[in-house]
């Protein structure tokens, strides 16, 4: 009886692991293919093949990469473009704080795992019921996405010249579209949706009057403004 129970638990655990791997690979492949759009967009903005590939290899956070090359393509300076990309990437540091407790990886592994702390790996890891499943989801998502993203970045950068005018293909919209697709499911509360809405208004409203890249930085003001307003509203409610 004990042997049968152990065998059944083993089979159940194996099925659970396979389900995590399947879901993680689905995320990795789906998002990794958008690296092609980044490669084309980056090459179209004037970056060399080496610069484009280095961004994917070293930065490896899609929203920040698209923000950087988008600002450069719009005529922004390197400083404002890098600043906008940096502020978008800061969120990964907060992901790391949560994942460090969840995954509890050995110290020697953490510096390498930090490279894979992005939206997708965080979402897959946090969705798992156990630490083992979270580790599997994190590793499979990170590995598949990193390899495919860098491969498609290379292919996109190499093929940019054969596509001709990249603006005619509308690939400049691929970055914002991918980012919105990743962001939308995360906006679950009214406060989060208010922050996103105000950020869009600030970014679009300031786009015609500020240098390229600066509206992205100004859009970051949406978070403290909404949190301040939400705090005041709750304070008034408590007084009543």
Automatic annotation (TrEMBL):
GO cellular component assignments: plasma membrane
Listed InterPro entries: Brnchd-chn_aa_trnsp_permease
Record's keyword terms, sorted: Cell membrane, Membrane, Transmembrane, Transmembrane helix, Transport
Cell location: Cell membrane
Main location (coarse class): membrane
Domain of life: Bacteria
GO biological process entries: L-valine transmembrane transport
Residue ranges crossing the lipid bilayer per the database entry: 20-40, 136-162, 168-187, 199-229
Membrane topology: Multi-pass membrane protein
One Pfam family linked to the record: AzlC
Protein family (similarity comment): Belongs to the AzlC family.
Protein name per the record: Branched-chain amino acid ABC transporter permease
